[in-house]
Amino acid sequence: MASVILDSQAVSVLSERKKSESLDRARAAIQILLSEGANLFIPASTIAEIRRGKYSTGVDRVLNSHRIINIDRLIASVSAEVLHKCQLGSENLADALVVGVASQAIAGEVYIITSDPKDLSRLSSKVNRKIYVISI
Amino acid sequence: MSITINESVALAIKELADGNVSSFINQELTDSVFRHRARGFQEGLDDELGIVPQDAMEWAAQQILDAKAD
Predict the structure, then answer these.
(1) What angle do CA B52, A95, B16 make, to 5 degrees?
(2) Which residues of B touch A74 (CB under 8 A)?
(3) In this complex, is the C-beta atom of B23 within 8 Å of any C-beta atom belonging to chain A?
(4) Assigned domain for B20 exists
(5) pLDDT tens figures, B10-57
């Protein structure tokens, strides 16, 4: 069974509900993966990224419809390790935490949906499992 | 009362206790409710914005294929 992790940009696009190419693409990717039985997850750290003064019902709707994954000791440790391997600093922490969550999904394909695939692809290449980065 | 557990369960409990297994795995085991909610969310968007255009569906399908081919 596949796992799909949404990063902050994906959550933002879905919550704003403004007709756009990115929204269509996000909906399409999620629709395809859901039809294949995938589960959708949002790292708890993503809430910190997107909330910052934004308390819209759109964000709440997205958060309430997807399982939130807490950042535990192991996920934090993996995230630190991928940052170190890529020689990146804390400015990339949010992306590293998304990869850390993706790395700990139960067996099966793992996808990250994002509009910023470059850093996530680089970080994902440093974990011991294949993570598919889908750019919207 | 005594409970007998096999070796793999004992190992899993130890790994959990040692912090070597993410709580994500436990959360993921009970996610059918959220899959249902996510589908409902998608359908809500369909009602509000219309169904996903065919070109976006084709694009996403290709993205998924490309990602797997990488």
Answers:
(1) 105
(2) 19-22
(3) yes
(4) yes
(5) 766 776 676 667 767 766 665 677 788 888 888 888 888 888 999 999
